[in-house]
Design goal:
The chain is α+β, with helices and mostly antiparallel strands. The chain has 4 domains: about 1-55 and about 140-200, no CATH class; about 55-140, Beta-Lactamase; about 210-305, Helix Hairpins (Orthogonal Bundle); about 310-460, Heat Shock Protein 90, CATH 3.30.565.10. It is built from 12 helices and 14 strands. It has helices spanning about 5-10, 15-45, 55-70, 100-110, 145-150, 155-195, 210-265, 275-305, 315-330, 350-370, 400-405, 425-435, and strands at about 50, 85-90, 95, 115-120, 120-130, 130-135, 140-145, 310-315, 335-340, 350, 375-385, 385-390, 440-445, 450-460. The protein has a 5-stranded antiparallel beta sheet, sandwiched between helices. A 5-stranded mixed beta sheet has the order 9-11-12-14-13. A two-stranded antiparallel sheet has the order 1-7. A hairpin with a 6-residue loop joins β13 and β14 (about 450-460). α10 (about 350-370) runs antiparallel to α12. The longest helix is centred in the middle third of the chain and has 57 residues, at about 210-265.
């Protein structure tokens, strides 16, 4: 549904506003995440599922009092949040629930001090006569469950990690949502550019609701209308020019026919040699002028026949038809025509009349330039989603200049290939037809024969407009 520019202006939002909305959502979500995780953390503390950070320190102070009073520290139970190692005064390890390696490390750490910290634990040394206790503990909130404490020894770090993961996931989700929304808003720009690139100017601009994007779309809409008007004017002028040229060419044919007829009648009368020579000059010039005019009419017909009528074509039957015409043309110069096909599908979709005309232009051109008694070859093969027609002759080939210009209108600059009365229109028309099918014309010199190699490729599928 088309949205007018007035509606677009009324509903448009600045890109900055949209960004600030998403930023507000991001900040609100982050704050909400902190509140929720904080509430869960303090809720666990209130129910005893999480033990406060100073609980281990309190247990250590209590154990220190017991040791200094001459008692053994309390039995190590699941609720005890510290570990210990018992040494003699000279450093011999007596008993412990620390690993032996940790015990040796703790003794060396506290050799000259009573307390120290080595990430992530605090260490305290308690001396009672000939016995030394070293207690290891952590000042951090911990889970009261021993199983959870073994897996997650620091509850605070766990919640920080949980916040970090949730924060990154939320950021990625929000960024992805924002990106998709901007991509949807800009899809109108891409669609409009694609239509203009394909020269399809009969479409409606879909406005995005973002003022910055809509301003660009509005400019593209104005550009589209201006371009369409310009192309319509140009097309009208071109059509008028072609019609005038075609009409003039047809009008000129009438007096030329009269001239030719009178020259032919004059040739039947008694004339001396000089008169006969002048009469032959007039007849030859008349034939040349008629050829020029026919070429001009053919050109105007080709350029105005821009409508393609593709149908499903049996390639084998189509090629047999081309082969028959190829053999008929070859008789004049005693050529040996050959047709080779490879990997063809059952059907192709093309305009058979235009495609036949394009191929016969190539074959006729090759016949003109092939030496008498030489070989003329047509290769037809299917390459991926295209069908390729390649015509090879054993003539002199194309000059470097002709390889670049042979498909130009009225190009006859290649003396090595000769003009043969075609006036440089055959390959131009062939290229026009190939491109009309969505294909291309390629001109080269064959490494196999040394002569010309002219190829057209057309897609196997066209949009069918005519049923079989």
């Amino acid at each position: 549904m088309e949205v007018t520019s007035q509606q677009s202006r009324r509903k448009s939002t600045k890109l900055r506003t949209l960004f600030l909305k998403y930023l507000a959502v991001f900040c609100t979500g982050t704050i909400g995440l902190v509140i929720v995780l904080g509430a869960i953390f303090f809720g666990f503390m209130a129910t005893g599922a999480i033990i406060p950070a100073n609980h281990a320190e309190k247990q250590v102070l209590k154990a220190e009092s017991e040791i200094l009073a001459g008692h053994e520290p309390p039995n190590i139970q699941s609720a005890t949040l510290y570990k210990y190692a018992k040494f003699t005064i000279d450093g011999k390890l007596l008993e412990h629930n620390l690993s032996e390696k940790q015990g040796v490390f703790a003794w060396e750490l506290l050799e000259d001090t009573k307390g120290s910290y080595s990430f992530p634990y605090y260490y305290t040394k308690i001396t009672n006569q000939q016995t030394v206790y070293i207690l290891q503990y952590s000042i951090s909130a911990q889970f009261s469950s021993p199983a959870l404490r073994r897996i997650l020894p620091n509850a605070e770090l766990f919640f920080f990690a949980l916040f970090g993961i949730a924060f990154l996931c939320g950021s990625a989700l929000l960024a992805s949502t924002f990106g998709r929304k901007i991509a949807r808003k800009m899809s109108g720009l891409q669609e409009a550019a694609m239509h203009i690139q394909e020269q399809d100017l009969d479409f409606s601009i879909q406005y995005s609701g973002i003022s910055e994007i809509d301003r660009v779309l509005m400019s593209m809409d104005q550009m589209k209308d201006a371009l369409r008007d310009s192309l319509e004017r140009q097309w009208t002028l071109e059509q008028s020019r072609r019609e005038q040229i075609s009409a003039l060419a047809h009008d000129v044919k009438t007096p030329l026919t009269i001239v030719r007829g009178n020259v032919e009648l004059l040739a039947e009368t008694d004339m001396n040699d000089e008169q006969k020579e002048y009469s032959d000059y007039i007849a030859e010039s008349t034939r040349q002028m008629e050829s020029y005019i026919n070429t001009l009419i053919e050109l105007t017909k080709t350029e105005t026949s821009t409508t393609l009528y593709p149908v499903s074509v049996n390639p084998e039957a189509f090629i047999r038809q081309i082969e028959g015409q190829m053999q008929a043309l070859s008789i004049m110069k005693d050529l040996s025509p050959a047709v080779t096909t490879y990997g063809l599908s059952d059907t192709i979709v093309a305009d058979p009349k235009l495609l036949e005309r394009a191929l016969m232009n190539i074959i006729s051109n090759a016949v003109d330039h092939a030496p008498n008694g030489s070989k003329l070859t047509l290769f037809v093969e299917q390459v991926k989603d295209c069908i390729r027609f390649c015509v090879l002759d054993e003539g002199p080939g194309f000059s470097p200049e002709s390889l670049q210009l042979a498909a130009e209108q009225f190009y006859m600059g290649d003396s090595s290939r000769g003009t043969s009365g075609h006036y440089g229109m055959g390959l131009y028309i062939t290229q026009f037809i190939a491109r009309l099918h969505g294909g291309e014309l390629y001109i080269a010199n064959s490494e196999m024969t040394g002569g010309g190699e002219v190829t057209i490729e057309v897609p196997l599928k066209q949009k069918e407009s005519t049923p079989i």
